[in-house]
Amino acid sequence: MAYVKTWENNEKINATEKKKLEKDGLEIFNDIPHYAKNGFSSIPKEEWDLFKWAGLYLQRPKEAGYFMMRVNVPSGILTNEQTVALANIAKDYGRGVFDITTRQAIQFHWLEIEQIPDIFNRLEAVGLSSAGACGDITRTIVGNPLAGIDPDELFDTSDIVKDVYEFFQHNEDFSNLPRKYKMSISSNVRNASNAEINCISFTPAVKEIEGEQVVGFHLKVGGGLSSKPFLAQTLDVFVKPEQVKEVAIAVTTIFRDNGYREKRHLARLKFLVADWGVEKFKEKLEGITGPLLSKGEEPTKEWNAGYFYGVQKQKQEGLSYLGFNVPVGRLDADEVLELARISKEYGNGEIRTCNSQNLIIPNVLNEKTDELLKEKIFERITVRPNSFIGYSVSCTGIEYCNLALVETKERMRRIAEELDQTITLDVPVRFHMVGCPNSCGQRQIADIGLQGIKMRTKDKQMVEAFEIYVGGTLNAGGKFNEKLKGKVNAEQLIDVLADFLTHFKEEKLLGENFHEF
Ligand code: SF4
User: What PANTHER family does the record point to (predicted)?
Assistant: First the structure.
């Protein structure tokens, strides 16, 4: 597909855009072998940002030369050999740190440039890649982690996700988008893929066509978080499963050729959709695809927020999947190897990652589930987590991230575990902690969102603090949480949250959820 580089001669494009026109982000793959041979000092500073297209960021502090790597896991589905390969990369090169992200990807830390070629080889050998995991490009595709085994899905979406992912993978026609570009595809009727916060989402739909009930998708566009969050809006179209790739290419083309490239903070697809409106966007879309059918019925029920805890029946007779909590999404490489062993012994070897930073072991014989749960590792990685640690999400934070204002992951874990010691609730409360407004930890959709900030104390000391936001949900079309007045010194955060939750417990009705309160 030819580029329509309408922005090429636009003098107003920002400096990043000018750089991207000089050198495409994916070209960094050609340079990495040279840098790996010659060491970190051989990488010019101007090239650092390009590493994002290879899924690599310099972790904090950049000058130390350690990389963080994000590996795409479309739909969150990992085979046994992929899980083992990832665990061994974390063990051999990443000091054992194995993080599950809010887009079902896997993140490593502490990598050195000399190690990257071997890591690429190991990933390629098992059909994985980090290409496009960061940068202004199509990111990994979020999907239903239960695709193919889910009693709550209209049909299996795993092959569609794979097909669309493979089309965009390492595709130089789409490697220079105005900003990052996030897609989700799922037919789970409990919105397992958080459709409304993606740039483009395919969501389950049913339509009567020539007297027959046909299953397919509705299309949402223009969602996204960061400091100006938007919920995606639904276009009046019905997309048949076989049209998904064509429609995804068309929407991405519209973004590539019309997205704003002058001010970087206005470059996401959400701003174009907000300006155009859904009618104009649909017109532009059909200008590429030709006429599409109009919307059908929406079968989506309430939102499950990506949580699948417990032992649950699959749609296949006699088989179960088990949904486990991974506290704040962080595992040790040895734990991952142990999970891979268990998933092979009891299931078909697969492990699936959830956007709630948790995991699923599928395809276990019903009569084997009790025995599986006796394995020692499941004392920590449990199917029945407590109300707070079981529903706490956290971004990377200051430990590794250059943009972070505060420490998040360990803090979120500590706070949740302490709250679990003191407060018992009959409903879960979903916490999301982020270290800056970029919101990788999806603060806006949390029951209680905690956003890091710096604050000056009365005695003029600069300290870590948090803003508190309440009431986010993706139920009934979605609503972002709202900020409570003021900020809280990080040292007092646990006490403030304990008071707040005690009040919630005293005032709420039995079974009443946080977003209904
Ligand atoms: Fe870093 Fe901010 Fe993203 Fe957290 S939300 S990982 S601090 S950029």
Answer: FERREDOXIN--NITRITE REDUCTASE, CHLOROPLASTIC
Q: Which residue ranges have their beta carbon within 6 Å of ligand 1?
A: 395-397, 401, 403-404, 434-436, 438-441
> Which H helix or E strand runs over 69?
strand 67-71
User: Which is nearest to 343 in space by CA: 358, 365, 325, 314?
Assistant: 365
Specify whether 435 is catalytic: yes
Residues 6+ apart with CB under 8 A from 299: 154, 189, 204, 205, 206
Q: Helices 244-258 and 158-168, interaxial angle, to 10°?
A: 40
Which pair of tokens denotes residue 446?
A: 């949390």
Question: Exposed e or buried b for every residue in 404-421, given b needs 16+ CB within 10 A?
Answer: bbbbbbebbbebbeebbe
Q: How confident is the model at residue 70 (pLDDT cuts 50, 70, 90)?
A: very high
135: its two tokens: 């940068």
Complex confidence, ipTM: 0.99
Task: Tell me the pLDDT band of 5, cut-offs 50, 70 and 90.
Answer: low
Q: Tell which atom from ligand 1 comes closest to the C-alpha of 402.
A: 1
179 is annotated as an active-site residue: yes
Q: Is residue 436 flagged as an active site residue?
A: no
Query: Quick one: 171 exposed, middle or buried, by C-beta within 10 A (0-12, 13-18, 19+)?
Result: middle
The radius of gyration of the chain's CA atoms, rounded to the nearest angstrom, is: 22
Supply 48's token pair.
């650092």
Strands 77-78, 351-353: pairing is: antiparallel
- Report the 10 Å Cβ neighbour count for 211: 5
What gap in Å lies between CA 423 and CA 388, rounded to an integer?
9
Tokens of 51: 């590493």
